[in-house]
Amino acid sequence: MDKERALLALAALSQGTRFDTFQLLVRHEPDGLPAGEIARLLAIPQNTMSSHLAVLTRAGLAKAERQSRSIIYRADIAAFSKMTVFMLKDCCGGRAEICAPIITQLTPCCPEKEPIHG
Known about the structure:
This protein is mainly alpha-helical. It has one domain: Winged helix-like DNA-binding domain superfamily/Winged helix DNA-binding domain (Arc Repressor Mutant, subunit A), CATH 1.10.10.10. Helices cover 56% and strands 12% of the residues. It has six helices and three strands. The chain has helices at residues 3-13, 16-27, 35-42, 46-58, 77-88, 96-105; strands at 33-34, 62-67, 70-75. The protein has a three-stranded antiparallel β-sheet. The longest helix is centred in the middle third of the chain and has 13 residues, at 46-58. This is ArsR/SmtB family transcription factor.
């Protein structure tokens, strides 16, 4: 990740509908959502949603895959992770105690499932 890619991603997320769209895509990982369903869930006209999805895709925050007649969009979690790491690189000038609260908040939000023993 370089500064230009990070700025492109941050600019894409700085608009309300795109921010909401990215959050929606993250909630629907790993299956993704069809473009029409995203538009319906966010109550956005489909042509407007197409423009927002294109911006997120160009910024590297979303991926599109054609499935039959639908285009399924997914959040690019790896790209978002790279952007986050880029933003936090050399966090606080190497003073880990300052960054500890941020790192704690970045731990997985969903605990791993316990294995089912038969």
